[in-house]
Predict the 3D structure of the following.
Amino acid sequence: MKITGPLDDNEIPKYLHALGIPGMADIHVHFLPEPMMRKVWTYFDGAEENYGRPWHPISHG
């Protein structure tokens, strides 16, 4: 049986089911050297000045 990939977002659930995959998650992470990570957070800390919107980081405690 040949399974072809989805052509649009609406076909994804059927495609995953055909592969026997119950679901999926989109996870975005960064693994950066500490000096670069400091620069990233410095940029985010100045978000409103840098791109006009305040930055409200999500924290999980």
Remarks:
- Residues 9-51 form one domain.
- The radius of gyration is 19 Å.
